[in-house]
């Protein structure tokens, strides 16, 4: 019986290139990755098992997108968040509290002090 590939959406809409390596995750017979450069929508998220957000910018998600991300995870979707706080402070020169994905992490009781956060991955690995 052939197992379906895990569908991963790599959101690059708030990224300056840091998550590019995730788009090429292998092996191809297990993972199917797509990158998103636009605002997140329910129509897009419903087609994926996992959402990855890796960013070192201060660009933030809209309230509507934050609601969609929370619902995606609550409905069983996986979430991977990643950031380099030291790189953010060095390159952006703003306090870590301004790291854009903090708003996403805070939906799940996390902050930028956590460099990588996984939600609902028990189904995939």
Can you write the helix and strand succession as a string?
EHEHEHEHHE
User: Within the CATH hierarchy, at the fold level, what is the topology?
Assistant: Rossmann fold
Q: What structural class do helix, strand and pairing data support?
A: alpha/beta
Rounded average pLDDT? 80
How does the overall form come out from the CA principal axes? globular
Q: What are the low-pLDDT stretches, counting only 5+ consecutive residues below 50? A: 121-125
| CATH architecture identity | 3-Layer(aba) Sandwich
- Describe the strand arrangement of the main beta sheet, using strand numbers: 2-1-3-4-5
Domain tally: 1
How much helicity do the residues have? 25-40%
């Amino acid at each position: 019986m052939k197992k379906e590939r895990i569908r991963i959406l790599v959101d690059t809409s708030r990224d300056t290139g840091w998550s590019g390596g995730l788009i090429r995750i292998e092996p191809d017979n297990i993972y199917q990755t797509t990158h998103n450069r636009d605002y997140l929508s329910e129509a897009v998220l419903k087609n994926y098992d996992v959402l990855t957000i890796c960013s070192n910018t201060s660009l933030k998600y809209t309230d509507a997108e934050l609601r969609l991300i929370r619902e995606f995870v609550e409905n069983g979707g996986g979430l991977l968040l990643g950031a380099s706080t030291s790189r953010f402070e060095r390159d952006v020169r703003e306090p870590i509290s301004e790291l854009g994905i903090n708003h996403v992490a805070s939906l799940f009781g996390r902050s930028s002090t956590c460099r990588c956060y996984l939600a609902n991955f028990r189904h995939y690995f």
